[in-house]
Amino acid sequence: MRLDQDLASFMGSPVMIILGTSDDALQPEIGRGVGALVWPEKGQVELVISAWQWPGTLANVRANGRLSVTFARPSDYVSYQVKGRACVVPATKDHLARAAAYIDAVGAVLAELGLGRDIAAPWLVNRDPAVLSLSVESVFVQTPGAKAGQMLQGGS
Questions:
Q1: pLDDT tens track for 3-31
Q2: What is the distance between the alpha carbons of residues 86 and 3, in angstroms, rounded to a whole number?
Q3: Burial class (CB in 10 A: 0-12, 13-18, 19+), 85
Q4: Which domains, ranges and CATH numbers included, belong to the chain?
């Protein structure tokens, strides 16, 4: 599914990246991403995560491929959730560069909002990087308000 260019730009900006998975017994697991490379024409998002910090997220994606990702801008909570099927792929130099730039950018945004870098540091970890390659099947508005939960694109 192709992604809208504005949405793709939003997902690649310094937004919080929250990952949702579950195991085969539907026990939920949450994780955080530290950067996204977005391929709008392919409907593909590659998310850098810390395998050290989020082993359950990796295990769940390896086991069943289900992944939802919420992208939320910290300044105003404009948020979108994408859902689809994912697999784990090795991190490349481009992924590592994206993670480093993302950590700096989000750290700066949060600092501007009054949240010290020392407080945000546990959320922004790229130790033992891995990549979740997500094929987007549906997109939902998650910004608080009347349109929250509304499907924007897709159909799952």
A1: 999 999 999 999 999 999 999 999 999 99
A2: 16
A3: middle
A4: 5-141 (2.30.110.10)
Q: How many CB atoms lie within 10 A of CB 145?
A: 10
CB 85 within 8 A of CB 65: yes
Which candidate, 4, 10, 3, 12, places its Cα nearest to that of 95? 12
pTM of the model: 0.94
* Type of residue found at 40: P
Q: What is the CA radius of gyration of the chain?
A: 15
Contact yes or no for 68/20 (Cβ under 8 A): yes
Distance (Å, rounded) from C-alpha 17 to C-alpha 5? 18
Give the contacts of 109 (CB within 8 A, at least 6 positions apart).
Answer: 14, 74, 75
Altogether, the residues listed in the chain come to a count of 156
Contact 75, 113 (CB under 8 A): yes
Q: What is the pLDDT of residues 33-69, one digit of tens each?
A: 999 999 999 999 999 999 999 999 999 999 999 999 9
Largest CA distance in the chain: 41
